[in-house]
């Protein structure tokens, strides 16, 4: 099962990316691939055995005796968290592929091939139980992203890509060294084996945490993010914010904390403090952004920092907080889907107006009932309106934080008010009052083919809101 | 009864879904009637639940029903939130008010919103509000309560900003949402405390164990009450989180009647009555509730004296009347507070809808100075408005006397504050309520009114008139539920188990009633005569110049919040954005530059600075690594 989830997009990536297919054939094949992947992910969810731990396991020796007597295994498996991250990836890449086809990107075959490669790498890193395999997925993900960002996108894309590369390499090279160090000390690359040894090493933990916190990103490591989110194509930005940021949080939960529980516990206040600072800081900055992407970009930074708070509410011995971790993992799913919807919607605005500058927008809700409703729903989920799944996940994170330190929970709750402020400003600037200079009576409402990608995302959120337990009992 | 309760709750939500999915495939009129029918059906279910509760033994009237586990996990240490409702005397009274008054107002809206291009959306939002409000009053745990609490805030936002083509409604809607979000945070933090100390937020569990876990007057007992109070004052527009309510009048008038008079804004009173165990556990906070109530009722009463917008007069009146309810629950007389909530729902909705008829007839004019003399052309509306005005002043129903009475018998200093403040407030009420009637319906008709008045077919279409008449009848009839003087006390008896009543040791004190009536009546008579002569109005105004200026400035709260809240927040945001981000991004650029320069110096080959080349090199490197691994692999 897991292997199929990796192999399918990988094989199709090669086909779509390298074979000289026509645009239509490439588009058809790419779409078929991501839809099949969605079906596979759905099958996995249906067949998932609640409370059954890691499932769909494949474990083969890949490279015997690489260093320190440690074998590299092709060891993949899915527990609830992995499974929902894989499902989020499938949803995200499917909507990205559809958007790319509709937008008619240059060199479409290569573009779709890279998106499929990205999907394969993400599924690998979300399911890998071997450090080298995980690292392989992590690096392939980076390379696919570098190309997607550097070749397609806005005017200053090379500059943005360069920043992104520098940040990413700084993190991941150190992680590689730490993996090597672990293998030498622990004689294994296997996550389970190494976690059972429970190492206490500040530099190895720091190397892992740095790579993941750059990706998430944790404050103040988000310097690469504003340019990257503004210069990429809407679908790549959506994936960056919706899925790839979750790879960072996932890494913290799966590797950094379990491999070095005592170290993580020792340093937890560094992460809690920076997480809190980042949540409030980014939320305030979001309130002043002049462009639609900027608002959602900083909002995303704020939310990821909240997730980091949920992760680092640790008990002695690096034990996760029950409520905090449940909230953080559920929020990874919720925020992933919300970000996808928000950035893809911004893309639809840009398609119509050629800009996302808030001062040129306005009045989209007038005479455009569908756009009005869809943007409203996205904004409401993004501000975690009470009763929504996002509200539930934030509530659980904050309950965890409050249990650790009441002031932390109370201060982080201010993020709720700030989120209302910046998201309502975002929605009003796009949708309300008279027509902005780039919007007029001829600006069309959302089309069916556009709704085909946005409505499913919103439906997922509505279903999650009706029954959060469905995900929460599996993901924990 | 269980099924009926769930149907009562979820019918309006089903209405939202149907209206949203139908879009413009359903006509505007059918959509409006569908929403109205759903509201009435929900009311019928509520009434059926009420009668089944009446038929039960007095000690067995509280029920908790659970549909499924909404949030949580199998891990027992993770908070579990069941989708559960608590049906008891308190919630069933609220269910009737919400669905009953709600249904009448939704029906009224058919005429009021007729011809609006977004008519269908309006009715979908109204149904969304009904669902959310029912969730607030039926919820069986604090998380669901907070969900409803936030969703009524959302509905309020959507409906205040319904005419979002204009600037003012959008600004007012945002203000209301954000101020209510502050209150939501209060309740959220109270929930964190409960989860930490109880591991659950179910009402039953929290209320039965509260005394043991949080000793009376302890820090935690005070904190939890104070945090809940923050939510209550935000929702109920009490000092200090009240400034959003007058602005909320930008919404269509039926919205003002339903959300900002009859139901949502009184939710704070419900919350305090529901949590009376927690407030009894924190006597100081409970006193604070009374003080806040009295301060608000006086301040809003004064501001109402100088308002010129018909809806804002009524809005400040609402704030003031909710102040009475807070005063009542603040001296632990929950049943008096709830009774005033009930009567107020009728007469205030009545006043708003009557004002709506006037506004409608005058081409959306809301300035009372441009009205006048309308009693001649709108006799039926005038009569109904008098019913509302008499109720507001407190002649009948006598819910205000009951509050004063309870305060006097109930307790010490707080009791006296409520008693005296409430009596002074009664005089203010008499003045502003009568002033409104005098200016709108009597005297000379203004030039504007003569020009714009259009009462084509009678005063209003029957769909608008009937609900107003029904509310007037309701306002009169509910008065009999609790007359006092040993005549009837159905309401207090019914609520007794779930909302404490202060048992009056003597039948209702005739002196209190006389004082309240006398002060209200004196104020009414005074203002009635005053406006006979414009010169005297001006003279009185100049005598109270300072007070009038303060009242017109609304006691400066908006300016205060602008200066201590909004401006610092914006300043912080601007500083972070301009300085913080410049250092973080600038720092990363510096890092990027130095790294590239170093690498370039070291390897002359790579100094092109072309990203594509770097990427190619990276990809090549990765490929080499992959080949190396594959070479060692045994697949």
What's the SSE blueprint?
The complex is a heterodimer of chains A (476) and B (635).
Chain A: H1 2-18, H2 23-47, E1 55-67, E2 70-78, H3 80-103, H4 108-127, H5 131-151, H6 157-186, H7 191-197, H8 202-215, H9 225-231, H10 234-259, H11 261-266, H12 268-287, H13 292-312, E3 314-315, E4 319-320, H14 322-353, H15 369-382, H16 389-404, H17 406-431, H18 448-466, H19 468-475
Antiparallel strand pairs in A: 1-2, 3-4
Helix pairs in contact in A: 1-2, 1-4, 2-3, 2-4, 3-4, 3-10, 3-14, 3-18, 4-5, 5-6, 6-8, 6-9, 8-10, 9-10, 9-13, 10-13, 10-14, 12-13, 12-17, 13-14, 13-16, 13-17, 14-15, 14-16, 14-18, 14-19, 15-17, 15-18, 16-17, 18-19
Chain B: H1 2-22, H2 28-54, E1 63-71, E2 81-87, H3 89-112, H4 119-138, H5 142-160, H6 167-198, H7 203-213, H8 219-235, H9 244-247, H10 253-262, H11 267-274, H12 276-280, H13 283-306, H14 310-330, H15 334-361, H16 379-393, H17 399-410, H18 412-441, H19 447-452, H20 462-478, E3 482-484, E4 488-489, H21 490-495, H22 510-530, H23 534-543, H24 545-552, H25 557-602, H26 611-632
Antiparallel strand pairs in B: 1-2, 3-4
